[in-house]
Design goal:
Blueprint: E1 8-14, E2 17-18, E3 27-29, E4 33-37, E5 45-48, H1 50-55, E6 63-65, E7 69-73, E8 77-82, E9 94-100
Length: about 100
């Protein structure tokens, strides 16, 4: 289980590197917040289904965060995130996070 401050696990993106440290399928408790820090001029964070994650495609209507500091609450189960800047997801700027039910 990842340790966080309060109910927030902080996951940073620096210099265009998106969470390579978590490529080993991290597990968090549901209700945690994942915090993405990144250069908003170069990146974003899209919340997708597994299909969108696998294909690196954000369908119309997808939630896309663009503030450079996004706090996203995890629901139980898998959550999928990518950067939609062309070529970024295809080159590994994506992460799937498994949130366990805290009950």
């Amino acid at each position: 289980m990842a340790q966080g401050s309060g109910s927030s696990a902080r996951l940073g993106v620096l210099l265009g590197i998106l969470l390579y440290l978590l490529a080993a399928k991290p597990i968090f408790a549901a209700e945690y917040k994942v915090v993405f820090n990144y250069f908003k001029e170069r990146h974003n964070v899209a919340v997708l289904t597994k299909e969108g994650y696998d294909s690196c495609t954000a369908p119309s209507g997808s939630i896309v965060y663009q503030t450079g500091h996004d706090e996203i609450r995890l629901d139980p189960g898998q959550s999928y995130f990518i950067c939609t800047t062309p070529g970024h997801c295809e080159n590994g700027m994506k992460i799937a996070i498994n949130a366990s039910d805290s009950n």
